[in-house]
Write a structure and sequence with these properties.
Elements lengths: L39 E6 L31 E6 L4 E5 L5 H11 L11 E2 L5 H4 L15 E5 L1 H9 L3 H6 L3 E5 L6 E4 L2 E7 L10 E6 L4 E5 L12 H6 L3 E5 L21 H8 L4 H4 L2 E4 L13 H8 L3 E2 L5 E3 L1
Parallel strand pairs: 3-4, 4-5, 5-6, 10-11, 11-12, 12-13
Antiparallel strand pairs: 1-2, 1-14, 2-3, 7-8, 8-9, 9-10
Length: about 325
C-alpha cells in the first residue's frame, strides 16, 4: 500500500492540484521493525505548516481525505537520535508533535523517556513552534524541556501569551542560541544554527547544520529565494552529506491566483536551474521537503515527481532514516 504526502500553504486556501489517489510506498516505519543502531536523523513529517488535509478545504486535493486518516500528512519536522547518549531531539515543534514525539522516542528503545531531550526551533510561524502548547498545564505539564531558540524567538516566547506561561511555570527551559554558534550535544554530535532570509514578523529564521560521528546534514524547511541568502547554497550542499531543503511549490503555475512576488519560496523548477551543474553525487544529497498541498510532486505518479527523480534529487518521505 502506498502512502501520500500532501502539503499546505500558510493560512491561505490556494488552488489545489490534481486529486491524488496514489501514495508513496518507499517508507520506513517503526511498525515495520526498523532498527536504528547508529546516530541518525528521521523524517517525522513533510507537509507545510497547515498539515494535510487543510482546514475547510473542499478542493479535490483535500475533500476526500478527511475521512481517511491513513492519508493524513504531518507537518515538516526532523528527529535526531543520539545512540551514544540514548537521547532524542526534535527540529521544530509542529502541531503534530504528539505523534511525532511518540514516534521518535519509540525508535530509541534504550530509553524510557517519553519526552525528547531537546527541541530546536527554526522560527515563529505556526507549523514550527505551536506544538509547544502540548507541554503546558493543560496537557503534559512538562518539566523543563530544553527549547533552543534564537534571541528574538526567545523574547517572543517569554513575553507573548500563552507561550510565556510555559516559561514562567517551568514547562520549558529556553536555551538561547547565536548565529553560527556550535551547540555540543555529545562528544560526537553537534548542532549549529544559521540565519536564512524569510518573513520574520516575530522572530529570526534559521536553518541547522547537524554534524554526527561520520556525516553532516543541513536542514532548511523555510527560506526565501536562494539568491537572497548571503551564502552560496550550491557550495553549502557540497560540504554536507544530506540537505533537507524547502520545496514548498513546484512552480508558479500552481498559485496563479496570487502575486508570486509576494510568495518568495524557492520553486522546485528554480532549484533545478540553481543545482543543474552540480555533480550526480551532490544532487543525490538533496531531499526536498515542506511541500504545499498544491504541489504536483506530492503525487508520486505525476510527471513532476518523475522530473524531480530524473534530475537526480530525492523527495522526502515520513519515517525515512538517515545515518549520521
Amino acid at each position: 500500500m502506498k502512502w501520500i504526502y500532501l502539503l499546505i500553504v500558510s493560512l491561505t486556501a490556494l488552488s489545489c492540484s490534481e486529486s491524488i489517489e496514489s501514495v508513496n510506498s518507499n517508507t520506513n516505519s517503526k511498525e515495520e521493525n526498523v532498527e536504528i543502531s547508529s546516530t541518525s536523523l528521521v523524517i517525522l513529517g513533510t507537509t507545510q505548516d497547515a498539515g494535510y488535509p487543510q482546514i475547510a478545504c473542499t478542493k479535490d486535493c483535500c475533500k476526500d481525505v478527511f475521512g481517511r486518516p491513513e492519508l493524513h500528512g504531518m507537518v515538516a519536522s526532523l528527529g535526531l537520535i543520539d545512540v551514544s547518549t540514548n537521547k532524542t531531539y526534535l527540529f521544530d515543534a509542529t502541531p503534530d508533535i504528539v505523534e511525532q514525539m511518540k514516534s521518535l522516542t519509540s525508535f530509541e528503545t534504550k530509553s524510557n523517556n517519553e519526552f525528547v531531550d531537546g527541541i530546536f526551533l527554526t522560527h515563529a510561524h505556526i507549523g514550527h513552534y505551536t506544538g509547544l502548547m502540548y507541554l503546558g498545564k493543560e496537557a503534559t505539564d512538562a518539566d523543563s524541556v530544553p527549547v533552543f531558540a534564537m534571541p528574538r524567538m526567545k523574547t517572543f516566547l517569554t513575553n507573548s501569551g500563552p507561550w510565556s506561561q510555559l516559561v514562567s511555570r517551568g514547562n520549558i527551559r529556553l536555551e538561547e542560541m547565536e548565529d553560527e554558534e556550535v551547540i555540543q550535544l555529545s562528544e560526537e554530535l553537534e548542532v549549529t544554527p544559521f540565519l536564512v532570509p524569510h518573513r520574520d514578523e516575530f522572530s529570526e529564521t534559521v536553518g541547522y547544520m547537524i554534524k554526527g560521528p561520520r556525516k553532516t546534514a543541513m536542514f532548511i524547511p523555510d527560506i526565501d529565494k536562494w539568491h537572497k541568502w548571503d551564502k552560496d547554497i550550491v557550495e553549502e550542499i557540497k560540504n554536507v552529506d544530506y540537505a533537507f531543503l524547502d520545496a514548498t511549490f513546484f512552480s508558479g503555475e500552481e498559485i496563479n491566483n496570487r502575486d508570486i512576488s509576494q510568495i518568495p519560496y524557492p520553486f522546485i523548477v528554480e532549484s533545478f536551474e540553481t543545482f543543474k551543474k552540480m555533480s550526480k553525487e551532490d544532487k543525490e544529497k538533496i531531499v526536498f521537503i515542506h511541500f504545499n498541498h498544491t504541489n504536483p510532486v506530492l503525487n508520486p505518479d505525476s510527471a513532476e515527481a518523475n522530473q524531480v527523480l530524473e534530475n537526480g534529487f530525492r523527495i522526502g518521505r515520513r519515517n525515512q532514516v538517515f545515518e549520521l
